[in-house]
Design brief:
The chain contains no helices and 20 strands. The protein is mainly β. It has a single domain, classed as Porin, CATH 2.40.160.90. Strands 1, 2, 3, 4, 5, 6, 7, 8, 9, 10 and 11 form an eleven-stranded mixed sheet that branches. 51% of the residues are buried.
Length: 300
């Protein structure tokens, strides 16, 4: 039943972690920064993610999401060959994905993200993911993204943030900061999967409390196809998914309560870099007939 979803429409999720999946590669090395990625081999990243299971109506193809789970520990890995990404894999709880061009899978590069999909024609179960670009996102200490685990028996979606978190002892004290960046996600609205893109602003006046706000959210209807230039045939405004909220910072992490016109939920994140130069988080927001799971990254 999942073959009905176009590979490209299943999402445009951020990229930054990959694991040596298939083809027999060496053990991944720990991630240090996006500016120090190896030309060959795999890099492993640690982080947190939100996930959600869903079911699909076999008659009309619409989906219904369970209550999202998270945050939970998550890992990702990216594999390179001659300086090019060739594979990505990750997991969080029961949700996972594994995409490898050595198995015929595909990678597409877009303006703000990298999109990955399995070879749907030759696999019973497919995966799709999209992550922030490791070479042009403006982030050096973290990566973020979202994915579909298209297991026929237990399909899930997820979104996470990964990288090298700031040490608690290095966190700024009694100062203010503003972080601006981008986010990616997956929304289920009226039973239809949609990939989301949005801007995000994170502010703190004292590194004790935090404010999070997204804007300019758009989504891509999962029923429409990706064009040859990597864009989608149908992208529309999704301002109802714009969210805002506040929370508290604890050491190098934070939790915030979020609300949008589509529902309410939580974001869990971390500051990244030696001096909290960047911030990233994953979130889940749900309401009547709508679920939005995503992740974002921002820098000062």
């Amino acid at each position: 039943m999942f073959a009905q979803f176009p590979k490209a429409a299943l999402l445009q999720i951020l990229v930054t972690t990959l694991s040596a999946c298939g083809g027999g590669s060496t053990s991944p090395v720990p991630f240090t920064s996006t500016s120090e990625l190896p030309p060959d081999g795999a890099v492993e990243l640690q982080g947190q993610a939100h996930t959600a299971a869903y079911t699909t109506n076999l008659t009309d193809g619409t989906t219904t999401y369970d209550t999202p789970s998270g945050p939970q520990d998550s890992s990702l890995a990216i594999t390179f060959s001659n300086g090019e990404q060739i594979a990505i894999s990750g997991s969080a709880g029961n949700s996972k994905f594994d995409i490898d061009t050595r198995d015929g899978d595909e990678i597409y590069y877009r303006e703000n993200s990298t999109y990955y999909s399995t070879d749907a024609e030759n696999r019973d179960d497919g995966d799709a993911a999209y992550f922030s670009k490791t070479d042009s996102s403006g982030l050096d200490h973290l990566v973020y993204g979202a994915w579909y685990d298209l297991d026929r028996q237990n399909p899930t979606t997820g979104a996470g943030h990964y990288g090298v978190a700031t040490r608690a002892t290095a966190m700024p004290q009694s100062s203010s900061a503003t972080y601006r960046g981008k986010g990616l996600g997956i929304a289920n609205h009226d039973g239809i999967h949609s990939d989301t893109n949005f801007d995000v602003t994170v502010t703190t006046s004292d590194f004790s409390s935090i404010s999070v706000q997204s804007s300019n959210t758009t989504w891509t209807d999962g029923a429409h196809k990706r064009l040859s230039d990597g864009t989608y045939q149908f992208v529309e405004d999704a301002s109802a998914l714009d969210f805002s909220g506040t929370g508290q910072i604890d050491d190098a992490g934070f939790n915030a309560n979020l609300t949008s016109a589509a529902g309410s939920g939580t974001a869990t994140g971390s500051f990244y870099g030696p001096n909290a130069e960047e911030v990233g988080a994953s979130f889940a927001i749900s309401g009547s007939g709508s679920t939005h799971i995503g992740a974002f990254g921002a820098s000062r």
